[in-house]
Every structure is written in C-alpha cells, then in structure tokens.
Amino acid sequence: MKIISAEFDRSAPDLKGCPNWNRPEFAFIGRSNVGKSSLINMLAERKALAKVSVTPGKTKLINYFIINGSWCLVDLPGYGYAKTNQVQRADFNEAVADYLEKRENLRCAFVLIDSNLPPQPIDLEFVRWLGGVAVPFVLVFTKADKQSSSSLEKNVAAFKKILSETWEELPGQIMCSSKTKSGRSEILGVIDESLKTKRGE
Ligand code: GTP
Ligand code: MG
Questions:
Q1: Is the torsion defined by CA of 22, 111, 179, 47 positive or negative?
Q2: Taking a C-beta distance cutoff of 8 angstroms, is the pair 74, 26 a contact?
Q3: Structural domain contains residue 147
Q4: CA of 37 relative to ligand 1 center, distance in Å
Q5: Closest residue (by CA) to atom 13 of ligand 1?
Q6: Mean pLDDT of the region 133-161
Q7: pTM value surpassing 0.85
Q8: CATH code for position 16
Q9: Looking at the domain assignment, is residue 154 inside a domain?
C-alpha cells in the first residue's frame, strides 16, 4: 500500500469529541513511551506527523491522522503513566476505554508491547481487558532494533505463554522497529486487508 497523503486532522479529548464520519480507523495503544507515535510516523513515512518524546505521557488526547484521504491512524494516550500499576477501566484512561469499547469506526487496534522487556503485568492486564471488548486487535512488539533477536524472541515467547494459559486462540503478532522500519509492511498489510472487507464481514 502506498501512502500518498498523511494529514493531522484533530485531537479529541474523549469519544464525544471524535469526528462524525465513516472513515475506517486503526488505533495504536500501549504503555507510555512504548513507541506509538514513532510507529505512526514510520507507517506514514513522515518525520513529525505524531509528536514523539523521551518523556512518557506525551500523547494526552485522541489524535487523528487521515491517510490517503480515506482512512485514519489514531494515536491514543498511553497507559501506565499514572502511579498505580493496576489496570482498572478508569485507571488507564476513561477516554481510551470508551473509544475502544464504543467507537464504531474502529476496525483494528494495534497493541504495542516493548519487546525489550519481559512480560509486564500492566500490559497483560490491558490485553486481557481488551480481549473482553468486541474489537479485533494485533500485538505489535516494538523497538526490535535494540536487542539481539534471541532475547526479543524470549520476551515474546514469555508473553505468549502467559496469554495462552487463559486463551485458546492468541491474537496475531508483529515484530517492529520504527528505526529500521521492520514490521511496516506487515502492519500495512493488516490495514489493507481490513480496508478490503466491510465492517463485520
Ligand atoms: P506517549 O505518547 O508518551 O504515550 O509515548 P509513545 O508510545 O507515543 O512513544 P514515542 O513514540 O513518543 O517514543 C518514546 C521514545 O522511544 C522516544 O525516545 C523514541 O525515539 C523511542 N522509540 C520509539 N520507537 C523506537 C524504536 O523502534 N526503536 C528505538 N530504538 N527507539 C524507539
Ligand atoms: Mg505518543
């Protein structure tokens, strides 16, 4: 898929502030600093479409980027920035929970997990919560450029093992790096497939 145009549209504080249109949306969610905004820039091939920061908690609003005039990448505020390490619905962000549970335009959520860390309780809690929401999602393991592939695979395998203790079927998984652009074609492939099918098919 070619990205011909990528434009910032708006920042919505909550679900009510989301646009009233029928463009399909693909959302990026994960712990603060996991690389959501960097990944959006990498996918769109734009250096500074979404704001990247070394300080966690940079993205505080639901940010909309329109791609090729017809569909959207949505940058969501990260979770895990609050002091608590327990994900309750309201703990990770009421607006994000509302968006993921109720936004009809949402076709697929990409859940970003730092591939350099062993499974984090907050990510596991979040993924388990999302499993109860009727939205398709894919796990995206980020920052794959930072370590040897054997240690990355160890972290990914450990994450999958814990999930498979309670789930029969695991979601899809993609390894990526915004630095080397690995995983870009796989993520765009998921989006492309989804755009070809109508919602609910
Ligand atoms: P919040 O908006 O605060 O929730 O963070 P975010 O998830 O949007 O993360 P962001 O894209 O701002 O990146 C956080 C930090 O990680 C920045 O310093 C990035 O340069 C770095 N980073 C992001 N992706 C990668 C990657 O693929 N590889 C490496 N090495 N660093 C990355
Ligand atoms: Mg961000």
A1: positive
A2: yes
A3: no
A4: 7
A5: 35
A6: 93
A7: yes
A8: 3.40.50.300
A9: no
What residue ranges line ligand 1, CB within 6 angstroms? 30, 32-38, 52-54, 56-59, 78, 142-143, 145-146, 177-179
Structure tokens at 23: 């463009």
Residue 84 lies in a domain: yes
User: Residue 200: which pLDDT band, with cuts at 50, 70 and 90?
Assistant: low
Q: How many structural domains compose the chain?
A: 1
Angle, CA of 70, 74 and 80, to the nearest 5°:
170
If you measure from the C-alpha of residue 201 to the centroid of ligand 1, how many angstroms do you get, rounded to a whole number?
34
Residue at 161 is within a domain: no
State the average pLDDT over residues 65-76: 96
Ordered DSSP codes for 95-128: HHHHHHHH-TTEEEEEEEEETTSPPPHHHHHHHH
Question: Structure tokens of 197?
Answer: 């099918």
- Convert the pLDDT of each residue in 169-180 to its tens digit: 999 999 999 999
